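Q: What would this chain look like folded?
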Amino acid sequence: MWAHTPWQGRFLPHPLGPDERLRAYASWCNAVEGNTTFYATPDARTVASWARQTGEDFGFLLKLPRTVTHERRLAGGEAELRAFLDAIDPLGPRVAALWVQLPGSFGPGDLPALAAFLRTLPRTHRVAVEVRHPAFFTQERAARLLEGVLRGARAEWVPFDTTVLFAERPVTDAEREAWTRKPRLPRRTRALTDRPFVRYIGRDDAERTAEGWRPWIEVFRTWLREGRSPTMFIHTPDNADALALARRFHDEVRAGLPELEPLPEPMPAAPPTLF
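A: My prediction, written as structure tokens:
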């Protein structure tokens, strides 16, 4: 995502070589979703580049391979899981959490498989689980059972807030595409651990996106006052303004919590001029 074309020359310097793009992104945001690891386990050179371009306080939320979560449904993918864990090991503390995103068909009846799988993961890594089956959001018993499994493994439940996306009919091509691909689920604001992760997608209109995240502002302030360290990932359907919006969200949280450290100034997209 740090190579997103609309950001180049606008938020990030352009041109930049592949081994510099993440460094530029990391000057804007201190965490990133590792979605590419869902499709392929990165090779040693790639992981070394990620480590070289980021400090140890940068966080990767790395999605487990789809062979493990979707094709094997958490059973029988030991070799693929081990290869993945070995590959990301050089990132060390930069691995904010292992992201277990489960398919929409993975429901309450599959919780024993999830519990067994979580017991196999190394305790050296935090774990964050994203579910998409409607029962976990609409049935209290199903939610309680899932929370019990996650608490037993000290794992977090990652909500994906799409309520603003689906609040009104889409008006752009990217919004129309997002309507066909993103889950339509209720907002969930309950944290299970000291490191909550939230995924939020708004609209291609920046002001509508900011209006939609208002409920999260006080949630994040509350979590911070409780001593938690939450992470918010901001998306829009086209992601054109996502970098600026992520920093805006941080600033709005900080406006009511001045002890929260400001983000550092990002790398300029263009060299300074004399005039």
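The radius of gyration is 19 Å.
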